[in-house]
TrEMBL record, chains A, B, C, D:
Protein name: Chorismate synthase
Family: Belongs to the chorismate synthase family.
GO molecular function, one term: FMN binding
Subunit structure, interactors included: Homotetramer.
PROSITE patterns (UniProt xref): CHORISMATE_SYNTHASE_1, CHORISMATE_SYNTHASE_3
Sorted UniProt keywords: Amino-acid biosynthesis, Aromatic amino acid biosynthesis, FAD, Flavoprotein, FMN, Lyase, NADP
One GO BP annotation of this record: aromatic amino acid family biosynthetic process
CC cofactor: FMNH2
InterPro entries in the cross-refs: Chorismate_synth (IPR000453), Chorismate_synth_AroC_sf (IPR035904), Chorismate_synthase_CS (IPR020541)
Function summary: This reaction introduces a second double bond into the aromatic ring system.
Binding site for FMN: R125, S126, S127, N241, A242, G286, K301, P302, T303, S304, S305, R327
Binding site for NADP(+): R48, K54
PANTHER family reported in the protein's UniProt record: CHORISMATE SYNTHASE (PTHR21085:SF0)
Amino acid sequence: MSINSFGHLFRVTTWGESHGPALGATVDGCPPGVPVDEAMIQHWLDRRKPGQNKYTTQRREADAVRILSGVFEGQTTGTPVQLMIENTDQRSKDYGDIMEKFRPGHADITYWQKYGIRDYRGGGRSSARETASRVAAGGLAREAIRAIAPDMRITGYMTRMGAHEIDRSRFDWDQIEQNPFWAPDAQAANDWAEYLDDLRKSGSSVGAVIEVVARGVPAGLGAPVYGKLDTDLAAAMMSINAVKGVEIGEGMSAAMLTGELNADEIFMGNDGKPSYSSNHSGGILGGISTGQDIVVRFAVKPTSSILKTRKTITKTGAETEIVTKGRHDPCVGIRAVPVGEAMMACVILDHMLLHRGQVGGQVGETRGHIG
Amino acid sequence: MSINSFGHLFRVTTWGESHGPALGATVDGCPPGVPVDEAMIQHWLDRRKPGQNKYTTQRREADAVRILSGVFEGQTTGTPVQLMIENTDQRSKDYGDIMEKFRPGHADITYWQKYGIRDYRGGGRSSARETASRVAAGGLAREAIRAIAPDMRITGYMTRMGAHEIDRSRFDWDQIEQNPFWAPDAQAANDWAEYLDDLRKSGSSVGAVIEVVARGVPAGLGAPVYGKLDTDLAAAMMSINAVKGVEIGEGMSAAMLTGELNADEIFMGNDGKPSYSSNHSGGILGGISTGQDIVVRFAVKPTSSILKTRKTITKTGAETEIVTKGRHDPCVGIRAVPVGEAMMACVILDHMLLHRGQVGGQVGETRGHIG
Amino acid sequence: MSINSFGHLFRVTTWGESHGPALGATVDGCPPGVPVDEAMIQHWLDRRKPGQNKYTTQRREADAVRILSGVFEGQTTGTPVQLMIENTDQRSKDYGDIMEKFRPGHADITYWQKYGIRDYRGGGRSSARETASRVAAGGLAREAIRAIAPDMRITGYMTRMGAHEIDRSRFDWDQIEQNPFWAPDAQAANDWAEYLDDLRKSGSSVGAVIEVVARGVPAGLGAPVYGKLDTDLAAAMMSINAVKGVEIGEGMSAAMLTGELNADEIFMGNDGKPSYSSNHSGGILGGISTGQDIVVRFAVKPTSSILKTRKTITKTGAETEIVTKGRHDPCVGIRAVPVGEAMMACVILDHMLLHRGQVGGQVGETRGHIG
Amino acid sequence: MSINSFGHLFRVTTWGESHGPALGATVDGCPPGVPVDEAMIQHWLDRRKPGQNKYTTQRREADAVRILSGVFEGQTTGTPVQLMIENTDQRSKDYGDIMEKFRPGHADITYWQKYGIRDYRGGGRSSARETASRVAAGGLAREAIRAIAPDMRITGYMTRMGAHEIDRSRFDWDQIEQNPFWAPDAQAANDWAEYLDDLRKSGSSVGAVIEVVARGVPAGLGAPVYGKLDTDLAAAMMSINAVKGVEIGEGMSAAMLTGELNADEIFMGNDGKPSYSSNHSGGILGGISTGQDIVVRFAVKPTSSILKTRKTITKTGAETEIVTKGRHDPCVGIRAVPVGEAMMACVILDHMLLHRGQVGGQVGETRGHIG
């Protein structure tokens, strides 16, 4: 019932504050015999590292991960894996002003009200920095998936920045790694660059929509009715800082369709497995994977730490105004892409293990045969 | 790690199939001394009971709840409360055709693939009938909330049916109980009635958007970073049959706003508590309640059981077509309204108990004082 | 975090009071495809049924179990299995006296202090009757084990009644079912019969020691360091009413041995598997099964409901005396034998599923090979 | 369902291997506002530190704890507390021989069989070194208890070393800290010193019995029927390395008593609270605390790492012999005393929080009043 943990069998507990000595993830339940080392985890961490371009916070963090336990001679042992990242660039001086004032739209006020104490430095536990722990754990999950289901691919990208959406007709998987926005649409990337430049200069910020797709996921993963694959994915994504909405497949638009349009028709594929005419379901029916792509989408609200003046109150209840001077992300959604991928990896690995436990057999094996 | 359970301290496990002898909810962790009897739970169950008007399935179920444990002399004792609903109107004959064929958009195929056995009668465990158990548990949660926080109000309503949305300028709380659609807008209710009549006659179905609001929720409920109030609400709503999207406050639209527009400014209210200029946050910041209304929205896809012919396959892998003759809901979203309310009630009660455990004090008390 | 549940993947929640309408077990996580029906569960329940001989309470209960969910056409479906037992013989009148007085050595006073309300009829939730739910769940676990590991045998027996212990040199598996005490020693059974007759007539009661052995358990079950097989067995046995001590293998006596005596030497067996010179470890090393017999022992205290006059207090704090007239067991340990077996079955099945999930492969398969 | 975690609300996950870079405890759910710093935790760690006298392993470890998160300006913040202890004195060379051979009575063989990989250095995860993490977490629990219930006292001591038991008539609380064995009996301490000296020289080892008592625990803690206080204590103690038996109050001897002897009679104390004629129950009835002392006892088996030659096998299945040369404890039970105290502290704090959550009110407040 740990509140800083998620997962059934692959269980991740993150810990640490933005400006404490370190933060990390305690991962329990990773299968034994998974080849992994610090460089492999670092590879994934580097993708979310701040300060890599002018569109993300200029905070410079080495974000170097250390594996403190659970790995021996290059393989996981089945015991807890401790992934630690030390905080190096803290600059607490930047944050003096928020000691007394609450930033509108920020967790400052609720943490204070609930706990009566808060580590205000850099947002403490509520800082986007906590997501580094998730990405480290997700990196481990990816290596475990690679060992169990080598053909699986988990890819995230941005589909919307503020008012500007990608054009699906220009969708190109290869573009994603080619621009700072993880955009699958080169044209959109260019437009966003210009748009975000202006926003940054004006000291404002903007929201974004991220889509994460898992390809090569076998049918049969998920567990009705509260351990559904979509239920766990919704929780995983909603738990990411600043996320306000989560969609599976058709998502909110499903409300606008009729039954005949929304129901994906079923055929037999050439591989002797069921195939579908469409994927409104996002690869999940009744909480269980169909074998189609798993498609999850989430909205990230704009950073509340901005250079614009906002009305607020102090701890003593005095009405005042605040401007957040410290470094910030004009579009925090950019760095949410690797985080969404990490959460998807953790949830899917978890359900692969859960499936083995409950139903037996190996991943990809299901009990019910068709044909 | 029970997969048919949800909740941290107020823990609900639902059980039962659509056409088995009975279904129900095993509720563990209900506080002692809550006044409750079968009539009180029945009141909430009756709101979702099918067959009450031509817009919901004509299946007639008494849906009479029995309390088998945990209540003594009209009060909860702190031991598990077993809420059982017997299935009376089963008509298995209706369902002969789906023994061999999988309904497109339905859990038939994934249950079969995962488990190699499925109770095909009425959808078995994946039937919307499972939500009766949730409403019973939600009824108990409401009585517990009434005992602890009498001023709290949890209300659900429909904001969209297919292409037709309510007009917020006509929003009227009193309308909600006045029409079969739980619409807060009388005009919309009339339009929907006509629209749904045509849909029903044509054998089609349509999706809907439900909004659930909790008023009078104290500040401080919720627990970062994976036991966030919004995380648990997202999981609770996504776990409801046919739900494909969940939003908190501004939801997916938050992606389209700038930081200055999205951040709710803070003032001091006349009651000496913080007050906000707006509620884009949906009453939750950093996973913790602000004291504003908690606003959750979810999209329900159209029923996949329709009279329209759809292409599908059989268990033996033969391609074929299917038409679902049995009774069905043209807009299953209607009956999802009381279900959404029930899930909200369970999650909020759970977090009230969790808050007492972690932080101490009574509900409404917080450790951090402002002013 | 359900407090009336146990198990990781095979998760049992018991519910119900001694004199309520019914009690039972909600079992989540039972693997699909296990052949089971009510008669199979009833077989196990009948072994603990009271009133079968003069040595157990004369309360007459049909203890007829009903399967309300999770089983379809004679097989488990992978959804929750609800096992319900209705209470038929309640005789509440017997219990009038304990409404106001607390029985020494009984949970009456602590339930009252904690909850401020208690179902005093027959001990309510704290009645040994709750164990019927465990035996029903254990029956299901046994059928699942039979399907996965047909050669496993779980057998309980009594090794001590009060001052009288069995003589291990006369140990005979076949005797166990031949006497009302589940004694593996015919001579002891005769002595106990006489001894217990006198005790019963004098209105007293006595404690007992139960030993439960699981034979044919594969090596590799268990999960360090808090999901150890012995940790879960200790919790399972200690949770049984009236149990005050639990031992694994050598148990408390291990404190009296030297390292060379206690450490079981290892050889290679003819079956190509490791074999051991002795079993001081009770089949568990480091929380993981060795492949030897799993041996658990627990002590059951004497029933506190006796005909002897004891000093106590009333709810109003007046000092008084009490004599429990109602029916009672002179040696409640007798009926604890099937309960201990049931708990062992649940824990071992749970760890077989957990092993599949974490390590993969089938039961009996281990990742590390010797030789 | 984390297998390296324990606790309901105060949730401890330990991680780390004997010879890895570090080990520690991730503690989630510690209440906010508890005054704590590294020195306070270090105080408790120093009590179990090895190498303090000739009776414990000569391995020299600084065992310096670092608090990496969850504490700000000398108080807990309600976020996870990461307690890390770096491994300094590792001497891997000592352990060369056990790479290929399995020590009888040790977890070497079962870890290998289950996981197919093991960190053999110093026993890896199964080393008694893991208990340092527990003591650190227990130190935090003690500080939280001090803040909530200042009068509570948790004290452990050794009651038996091999064949030699203490004499209860000489029991003296003040003696416990005066001798290296935590013996409450000065005479026993002297006898044990001589006895252990001979054992150590002969290269043998011996078992012990530890008793842990919690004084000043309020009535009402515990939660039937699987979250019982005694159930959780049994699991906590049995999870400690080398423990083979756990007793509450009268323990195994309860089997030898009659009902009238075992049932503690109840009177009204001068403080207006119930008082008892004796404490056979060990302060727990029906899984809930009575307000008397909580008394738990556990047996620690003799270390299996001894200088005596024992028969065993190699990874390749060859029969051979082994002598463990490395440093070892002749009576590992000595260092188990602070560990038992730590587990008691964690379990009791956890149940104090659970009680607040489920029943409300502050610790010591119960809902049911007597008198």
